[in-house]
Hints:
- By secondary structure, the chain is α/β, with parallel strands linked by helices.
- 67% of the residues lie in helices and 7% in strands.
- The chain starts with a strand and ends with a helix.
- The model is unreliable at 154-166 and 364-370 (pLDDT under 50).
Amino acid sequence: xxxxxxxxxxxxxxxxxxxxxxxxxxxxxxxxxxxxxxxxxxxxxxxxxxxxxxxxxxxxxxxxxxxxxxxxxxxxxxxxxxxxxxxxxxxxxxxxxxxxxxxxxxxxxxxxxxxxxxxxxxxxxxxxxxxxxxxxxxxxxxxxxxxxxxxxxxxxxxxxxxxxxxxxxxxxxxxxxxxxxxxxxxxxxxxxxxxxxxxxxxxxxxxxxxxxxxxxxxxxxxxxxxxxxxxxxxxxxxxxxxxxxxxxxxxxxxxxxxxxxxxxxxxxxxxxxxxxxxxxxxxxxxxxxxxxxxxxxxxxxxxxxxxxxxxxxxxxxxxxxxxxxxxxxxxxxxxxxxxxxxxxxxxxxxxxxxxxxxxxxxxxxxxxxx
Length: 370
């Protein structure tokens, strides 16, 4: 049985040798792990660095400390179009600007944090073999932006992993994207319905409070407290539900994003017969971004309105503060999705050229006017 070759780029220091040994021990049954220090003569850069990088199937690059030699070897891996997994003990914000847009994982050798790294690597190493994880790099994106046929520059003949039967084609990516996008839309619709239900409960209680206030009497405070507790219960129900929706929203978008990137990188996406369909989807994606940004604005307005009820009653105060946390999470998720769509649309220019989104803006304006 063939084992995919994993070459690890790292600093030649004891701490990193230990990390390498732990990874080799963890994944050695399924992958063949090597690094330049195991190649014999470390002075022979052609034999011990370039050749094993070229012959590897997957690269793990530990960029801790941004060592110049490590960065040089990473550049070689990108030039050979290798599937590269970046890890670092440093804060991810310290990575060079041109690498920040690509996935990376920070880690520590502390047990719990290192366990996170192992789970991350397990997913990405296996994803590299099956094709489920999409890989790119600055060199590959540059060639794509200039419409240079990468087949003439790189060859993947060395990768002896048979994934043809399971390889996703253009229509496979598009079908999954459409299905998950529909689920995402349903999720958003459920949020709107549940938020409307909660608003109706608040409106009913507010109306009752006003009615009793106009009648007058000695039991106004007790009645108001009772109605406030009803509102608090409704707010809590929506808060509990929103937690689930936020998680579902994030998971669905992560999957959609991976498939969109896979769609853009699929060799058939540049086919003239597929261009119109791809452009139509990207226009729809832009509309999704508009709607997401509008929903975020609505949530911010709703949040401000809801906070005006703080101070009325203790149970309601607590329920509103907890809901505020879930609303902030929703805003963060939507903001991340919107930023991701910007990156996707920017990258799509390399495949389909510049897209005229003016129709999206005009349609949005017509909807607002009606």
